[in-house]
UniProtKB/TrEMBL annotation:
Domain AMP-dependent synthetase/ligase: 14-367
Short name of any one Pfam family annotated for the protein: AMP-binding
Ranges where the AMP-binding enzyme C-terminal domain occurs: 417-487
Record-linked InterPro entries: AMP-bd_C, AMP-bd_C_sf, AMP-dep_synth/lig_dom, ANL_N_sf
Record flagged with keyword Nucleotidyltransferase: no
This protein's record includes keyword 4Fe-4S: no
Family designation: Belongs to the ATP-dependent AMP-binding enzyme family.
Name of the molecule in the record: Class I adenylate-forming enzyme family protein
Lineage: Bacteria, Bacillati, Actinomycetota, Actinomycetes, Micrococcales
Length: 509
């Protein structure tokens, strides 16, 4: 007999029983109560089951953030279907390739992205039904399944979310997260940073990313709080929402927090209600953290992996000022370990090594890729691929991705360290460094630098700045001034593209 104690669909229904008239979603000013969202999710679940979709089937979505998207998620959660939100930032050929790998039983699309989906299907045709999201689409009529599956209630072990990783270094991997995994990661989040029924949570992350579900929104719907959905990120609009909606909690990436404090409306915006602002996805600069702290809203840094649910490490805001580089300590129910990257031996005390993670919120595996799954899982531990350090108090800091570290003249160079130095220049908005082959030194650094708006930077100026603060072997041999850097999910730099560009530029010299 399968267990259903940890199924996520129950959260919405329980909150609807407790607080039927309370706002569950504020979608660009359109407010839906818990009773309304639960009724729509129940009806859609029944409609999908009646059309032949059942546990084990995957429902792919091509959609921006919306209440319709949330209703589809909970309908899947109630029926054991796997919800697979695909990135709308992809090129049609890339999206088509992910659709083929997803092998969906049904594709749901919103009006804004119908053309993108059509182009993707031209590149990679799919033999499965398609429908529009919302009350005028699949919620009114669900096309019959091409491969009918018997209906049953959702089980703890059913995969709930299929999230594709960003693919910054290789082809994206499909990460399967079960109901049970989502239950535990939200339980840990609730114990570390609890939400209340009167909270108003602002969701500014795209819903094809795991954090848009498992870092605050799902916990908010479990608690009975209100979630304000934003389809994009406009700093001036977000600042207005913080004030007018009385937002109490949010999660964002460091770049978003930087853009907010750089906006002309920053000084005039009332942030009095905002009590919990979580930062993740990349390194939070001390300058940004200090600016938010001075406004009375300290940022709470954290670290996570899609494969871990994602919540892994967090640092209470009150401690962040004393440890500006740290991302914290493990969440409740999460174990971490530092290991020698080569031998896998445990490192004790203050040390640096690969971060390994073990918890009940770990993923079930990569979609149709047992070899890749076996490569990162060892005796129940997930190898993160990140080099981390631990201080004497037990707080962790992330040094860099192990595969991003390059060796120059026998010395290890962490790109993140070089990037921090380059970004300390007052005219630099952002920098990225990659290792490229070198006939003499093995590898040398290539830097890509984006100036602040309106600034003029030269390669010689950047090299002089780097030499004044770094050992010679860490100074990049190439400096390229760029208008922008290629980024993927959560604003992470896509180093693979930069590495290819750097190698090509080096060949032409």
């Amino acid at each position: 007999m399968t267990s259903s104690r940890h199924t996520v669909g129950r959260w919405l229904l329980d909150s609807a029983d407790r607080r039927p008239a309370h706002p569950a979603i504020d979608d660009r000013g359109v407010v839906l109560t818990y009773k309304e969202v639960a009724a729509r999710a129940r009806d859609l679940a029944a409609r999908l089951a009646g059309a032949g979709y059942g546990a084990g089937d995957r429902i792919a979505t091509v959609s921006g953030t919306s209440a319709d998207h949330v209703v589809a998620f909970f309908a899947c959660a109630l029926t054991g279907l796997t919800f697979a939100p695909l990135s709308v930032r992809l090129a049609p050929a890339e999206l088509g390739a992910l659709l083929t790998r997803t092998d969906p039983a049904l594709i749901l699309v919103d009006e804004e992205h119908e053309r993108l989906l059509a182009s993707a299907l031209e590149a990679e045709p799919q033999r499965c039904p398609r429908a529009s999201l919302g009350t005028a689409g699949v919620e009114s009529h669900a096309p019959g399944s091409a491969r009918p599956t018997p209906a049953r209630a959702a089980a703890d072990s059913d995969p709930l979310l299929l999230i594709f990783t960003s693919g910054a270094e290789a082809a994206p991997k499909g990460v399967l997260l079960s109901h049970e995994a989502c239950f535990w990661t939200n339980l840990a989040l609730d114990q570390a940073m609890p939400l209340r029924e009167d909270d108003v949570v602002l969701c500014v992350l795209p819903q094809y990313h795991v954090a848009a579900w498992n870092v605050q929104p799902l916990l908010a719907w479990r608690t009975g709080a209100t979630v304000v959905l934003e389809r994009g990120f406009s700093p001036s609009r977000v600042l207005s929402l913080l004030e007018t909606r009385g937002v109490t909690a949010m999660m964002g990436v460091p770049t978003q927090y930087r853009l907010l404090l750089d906006d002309p409306a920053w000084d005039q915006t009332d942030l009095a209600t905002l009590r919990l602002a979580v930062s993740g996805g990349a390194r939070l600069s001390p300058e940004v953290a200090q600016a938010w702290r001075e406004r009375g809203t300290p940022l709470t840094p954290g670290y996570g992996l899609t494969e871990a649910g994602p919540n892994t490490l967090h640092l209470p805001a009150a401690q962040a000022a004393d440890a500006p580089e740290a991302v914290g300590v493990p969440y409740p129910h999460v174990e971490v370990s530092l290991r020698d990257p080569e031998s896998g031996l445990v490192l004790e005390g203050a040390a640096a090594g690969e971060l390994w993670v073990r918890s009940p919120s770990l993923f079930s595996g990569y979609l149709d890729d047992p070899a890749a799954t076996a490569q990162v899982l060892t005796d129940g531990w997930l190898r993160s691929g990140d080099l981390a350090s631990r201080d004497e108090s037990g707080r962790y800091s992330i040094v860099d991705r192990i595969k991003d570290i390059y060796i120059s003249g026998g010395e290890n160079v962490a790109p993140a360290e070089v990037e921090r130095v380059l970004e300390s220049h007052p005219l630099v908005a952002r920098a990225a460094v990659v290792g490229v082959p070198d006939d003499v030194w093995g590898e040398r650094g290539a830097a890509f630098v984006r100036p602040v708006a309106g600034a003029v930077l030269t390669r010689d100026e950047m090299e002089a700045h780097a030499r004044s603060l770094l050992a010679g072997f860490k100074v990049p041999v190439q400096f390229t001034i760029v208008e922008d850097l290629p980024t993927g999910t959560l604003d992470k730099v896509e180093r693979r593209h930069l590495r290819e560009r750097a190698v090509a530029e080096r060949r032409t010299r």
